[in-house]
Amino acid sequence: MRNAVWSNLPVTTDLLICGLGPAGRALTHRALSHGYSVTAIDPHPDRRWAATYGAWVDELPEWVAPVGTTAVRPVAWGSRRFEIDRPYVVFEGGALQDSLNVDGARVVSDRVVDIDRTTERPASVRLSTGTTLTARRVIDARGVARSPARAEQTAYGVVVPRRSWGETLFMDWRPDNGADPDEPRSFLYAVPLSADATLLEETCLAGRPALAGAVLRDRLLTRLRCRGIELDGTEPVERVRFPVTGGRPGRDRFGAAGGLLHPATGYSVATALSLSDAVVAGESIWPVSARAVHRLRAAGLRALLALPPQDLPAFFDAFFDLPVDLQRAYLSGHSDFRGTAAAMTRIFRALPWKLRRTLATAVAPIPLLTK
Predict the structure, then answer these.
(1) Is the same domain home to 123 and 202?
(2) Is 7 domain-assigned?
(3) Residue 2 phi/psi, 5° resolution?
């Protein structure tokens, strides 16, 4: 059943959520399942999600519906091949959106222009239409706005028949995409979307500025031709561009807006899914250890941006050489300070001295335990 859209109606509810992207919709879904009344505000609440979302299976809470396609042992390439002993699931955006049912929420089709938490509860938001809505709690899950000062991840992908492609590639940094050695690097991400379809996507992990979509398209076509795949131009296309920095940890922000996006990978959806229940319950998801991990991850992004393009494959050789538990700590450990620090230390020690100097200069200092 389509959600009823409420507009121009000031109401008081337990929880008011600004934004109905993956984080906001997950929070709405879980709040409803726990019996809370929810108002959700989004300029386009019924817009279908066109993006593809990936997650490691062990990151996901049990309540997430099994609507994804799973690769049991995805492969990564730096300068050599690695099999990752960690199942990876891919969600087609529309399927994930439908699984996070928000029937029962008051859904307001409007844009939030101001959030007021300066007075005693209830908190309030002001909408572009002039309406003010109140709630016991207001959580901002509107994502992060683009800015020239922020590093971004970009990608260009096509969907092909699954029979046209073989193994799942989490990252493939091999240099067969036509880029010159001293140009910014990009990698191939190749994942199954269903029993019949595979997404092949050329990705700029992070850049300031990031690679343009046209550059990534040309690289993807070159790479696929090198591997014997010719496209006919009718393939569905996915375009990706979003900032990987700019979120701020806090009790009243969630998802990318609340600092949950991993700046060195671009992943945030699984973390938002796994922490939704805690946020609904009013628990803090930002203990000192999580804030320290947030700072370590920001240092990891600075390291990636500082590395010469030709040295990125060696860096990822060192990463995928890590034991899976340390890979998991760095990629998924929201509050695992010890594991994240151990993973970064192991990578640093595995690299040649030249790269160590580059990384040390890029990441220092790291104010880990400040609030």
Answers:
(1) no
(2) no
(3) -70, 140
